[in-house]
Structures are given as C-alpha cells and as structure tokens.
Amino acid sequence: MHERALEETAAPPRPPAVATPAPWKRALRDAIRDPDELIDALGLPKSLRAGAHRAARLFPPVVPRGFLARMRHGDPDDPLLRQVLPLGAEEEEVTGFSPDPLAEADALRAPGLLQKYSGRALLIVAGVCAVACRYCFRRHFPYDDAPASLAAWEPAFATLAADPTVEEAILSGGDPLMRSDAFLAELARRLAAIPHLRRLRIHTRLPIVVPERVDDELVAWLGATRLAPVVVVHANHPAEIDESCGAALARLVRAGVPTLNQSVLLRGVNDDAEVLAELSRRLLDRGVLPYYLHQLDPVAGAAHFRVEEERGGEIVAELRRRLPGYAVPRYVKEIPGAAHKVELVEGFAEKAPPLS
C-alpha cells in the first residue's frame, strides 16, 4: 500500500521540453506583415490604407518590430518607414522600369547560381528577407526556381568546381542569413572544398533590421571556414544604426570579419549629403566601411524612389568635401552586360555647389 500510495501521489510525467527559438527567429516570427497593422502601429493617416493594400498584393510587406521602433510615430515621411510602407505608386507603369532591370535571367549558370562579373559568382541562398524593402531590385525574382536543399545545390557546386577563374562565392537572396546556421555552415564547408575558391562574401540586411541575428552560432561558423569571410550589410539612413544594430556590427568586426556597407540612393530617404555623411560616421564608429552608394536599379514598382544621377553626383561630391576619402562610398550603377559596376561620380566634383 505504501508503494502504491507513493505512485499515486507522484507528480505526473513532464511533457517533452520544447526548444525555445533563437531571439532572431522570434523577431522574424513576430514581424508585421499586414499593412493595416503597420499603419495603426505608427498612427499614420487612414488615407494610406487603400494604396497600401493594393501594393501589398503585389509585394507583401515585412517589417520587424525592432526596426519599427526606430521610426517616428505619426510621420508618413519617416525615412525608415518610406523604405517599407507599401504605396499606391508601386502600381504605376513607368517607362524604363522593368521586372528584371539587371537582366539576371541571362546570368544564370546553374539553378540558383548567377555570374555577372569575372572572378565571382552569386548563390541565391534564400528567397525571403527579414524586411521587404519596397525598392528591392529582386522583388519580382523567380525564387521558386532556386535550390532549397543542399542536395539541390549539387549542379551549382559542380559548375563552380569546373571553373578555376572563380575565386569568390557570394551568398545572396533574398537574404542568406534567413537560413539556419547549420545550413549555412554546411554550405560554407561545401564551398571551401572547392580548392580555387578563396573568399566567401555574404550580402545581408539582417544585422541592420534584426541585430539578434549576429549570435554565437553565426560568428562561430564564419570563423571556422577556410574561406576568407566578408560581410556586406545594407543600411540607407543613420537612424537605422541604433544601439542594438551598432552592437551587432561591432561584434562582427571584433570577430575579425571585414564588414562593409552598401546603400541605395533613395528619394525622400537619403538624397541629402548630411544624411549620408552621418550614416558614414555611424558606420565608421562601429568599424564598418562605407562601400557602395547604388543608383536605384530601375525595377518595376520603385520609380517613386528615383534620384537623378546628376543630383547623386552632386551629393557625393559634397561628401568628398565633408569626409575623409575612406568614408565616402563609391557611387555606382549596375548596367546589364557590363564587365563591372560603373562609377558615376567622375565629372561632378567641379559642379558641386559651395558649402553653406
């Protein structure tokens, strides 16, 4: 009786432990994906709803809440909000703006593998991002055609292995850091097994919009690969570099990973010399080198972000006068079929207006 009483009063068996998702995965799970929720969260005018819904059907919004917290409440012209808020203007058909502005379909060498320039090739590792930038040049890209599993990448590995002129593999997307660290570590291992590959470049926006992504696991596999890693992040405005973002960038730099930034010149966001100068200052303070300032790629749905090249050249000429040379990003334009990105700033320096 005593033993049976003990059995009857014992605590019931515990259910199996459920793994707690990593903070960056929770941030992705909790991101805003409804235009009404985005408008309500920032107290924006209700007049934006109709256009936002129409644009969202073409290209659904994704806004992490940590990124939302850096925006000004009630201001539809906030420069961070402008990058992510769907607008009716995206429906307009504008001459010269197309679904594939860089003719990437012509650069496909194997499923998911693009090569536009000599010496490096790009892998479309993921078809999703942590944030849906409204000016994204791949907003119409056929991501469903890219490999999902590592086994499906075998043709790309074989293509790279057969071309000794390729020295650098670029992980892109979407955003490659949307994949798990286990997947990325194995992908890096497979690439490192190709003897002539020397560098692994990662193009990502996650350290900016979801800084939690720069965690122990990411730093560990970046430090373990034979390939020399380079991380290229994407920030367009100094308000994006808050304390948490700055800490994530500094962690990459402290881990010995060269970290660069590229921006896109966007009307109403950063088409101002002082804005871009302050962005460079905040990046450099965290050890990140300003790398490129891209002229907007003419993708369908993004014409309202266009800044004329002459104005862009004037802005960069002013940056040259305000900042040391290493702090000034190269102002470039990508032209389909060209051997490299074309630098646009030459010839504008002498036209820059005097500083006030």
Mean pLDDT: 93
DSSP helical segment count: 13
State Rg.
Answer: 23 Å
Structural class estimated from helices and strands: alpha/beta
- How much of the sequence lies in strands comes to 5-15%
CATH architecture of the largest domain: Alpha-Beta Barrel
Shape: globular
Explain briefly what this protein structure is:
With 356 residues, the protein is an alpha/beta fold. It has two domains: 22-91, no CATH class; 104-351, TIM Barrel (Alpha-Beta Barrel), CATH 3.20.20. It has helices at 2-9, 23-29, 35-41, 49-58, 65-68, 79-84, 154-161, 181-192, 206-209, 216-224, 243-254, 273-285, 309-322, and strands at 108-110, 113-117, 120-124, 168-172, 199-203, 228-234, 259-264, 289-294, 330-333, 342-343.
Give structural notes:
By secondary structure, the chain is of the alpha/beta class. It has 2 domains: 22-91, no CATH class; 104-351, Aldolase class I (TIM Barrel, Alpha-Beta Barrel). It contains 13 helices and 10 strands. It has helices at 2-9, 23-29, 35-41, 49-58, 65-68, 79-84, 154-161, 181-192, 206-209, 216-224, 243-254, 273-285, 309-322, and strands spanning 108-110, 113-117, 120-124, 168-172, 199-203, 228-234, 259-264, 289-294, 330-333, 342-343. Strands 1-2-3-4-5-6-7-8-9-10 form a 10-stranded mixed β-sheet. Helix 8 (181-192) packs parallel to helix 10 (216-224) and helix 12 packs across helix 13 (309-322). The radius of gyration is 23 Å and the shape is globular. The model is unreliable at 1-11 and 352-356 (pLDDT under 50).
